[in-house]
Amino acid sequence: MFNASCRVLATVGLLAAATVGLSACNTVSGMGQDASALGHDVSRGATATQSAVTSNTGLATH
């Protein structure tokens, strides 16, 4: 199904993804902190979008 070059490329890709993933979260605690930071970023983005909609249209968003 896959030729040798595709297998090598897929293996290198998986190893690179695993390396990045493991270096980003060394511990379960670190993973929790990363998830928390992502949640805060999403919340700040939603608040900024809501403020922009309200200030540019004058319409309430809820």
Automatic annotation (TrEMBL):
Name of the molecule in the record: Entericidin
Leader peptide range in chain numbering: 1-24
Record keywords: Signal
PROSITE patterns linked to this entry: PROKAR_LIPOPROTEIN
